[in-house]
Amino acid sequence: MKREIVISMIVSFIVFIILGGIILFLIQQSQTISLLSSPSTLREKTSFLTPTEKLAQPQEASIPMTLAKKTTSSPDRLVIINKTIVMEVKDVENSRIQVERLITEYNGYILNLTLSSADTQPVPMETKTDKITKAIIVIKVPIKNFIKFTQEVKKLGKLKSEFESSEEVTEQYIDLNARLKNLKREEERFLSFFDAAKNVKEMLEIERELSRIRGEIESLQAQVDHLEKSAKMATITLELSEPSPIVTPSGESWGFIEAIRKAIQNFVKVINFLIQLFGALLPFAILGFASYYLVKFWKKREELSKKS
Known about the structure:
Elements: H1 2-37, H2 39-47, H3 51-56, H4 62-73, E1 79-88, H5 92-105, E2 109-117, E3 123-124, E4 132-142, H6 146-154, E5 158-168, H7 170-195, H8 200-232, E6 233-241, H9 256-307
Parallel strand pairs: 1-6
Antiparallel strand pairs: 1-5, 2-3, 2-4, 4-6
């Protein structure tokens, strides 16, 4: 009797260990998949590729660069170019001043500027900060100076990542111009009708139509002007940041408190995992104990029936 109880307990324990291992494996796999599928992880993986790995990647930036050259030589095509450059520099403030000098030299202008200091959220340019460690500058540069400007900017520090995209809007531009030309012809026709109007009612109806047509003309003209301006000026988003210090300067924290905080966080993560594992195994444990006591009760009942 004791031998059967020991065997059943050993079998139940082995089953619990196997089930626990399976559940632990599934949890780790789901966490790995979620990390790999997150955009931040993908950005980190692509930002730190070696030169050999980068050559193996699709050359996304080379195609838009060719389009930029064609745009300067072919006025019949309209291409809107956007570029993002992420760089690591020794001093963000000095690099920002040099970038502003290059912007002036190449006839560009700053569309937006965001500065931030260590361990703080980004703040507008007007806000005073102690030590600027990161800057995000959105720049507009004439398309004819686009390539030279980006080449000069890359000399200011270490290039971490680079992305370029282009959008051709030639068909949209041609369509808008065709519609604009038709509306102007319609406007001229209504003006001739206005001169030939015989009474006030006809004049008011013609003025109503002229007002509608002129509103559409202004809207289309604004879209045409926007496409022309966008194609003439390339948009460059430049992100500058300083390398993370290996040792904290004297007079500041050496990271001891941060290490304790991370240790507590890791301890809490372990406790959370054990609680999740216990919750996952609890139904099986209840089922095992219930089966054990049921078998024990059944065998005891058989023994009593035999004695009687």
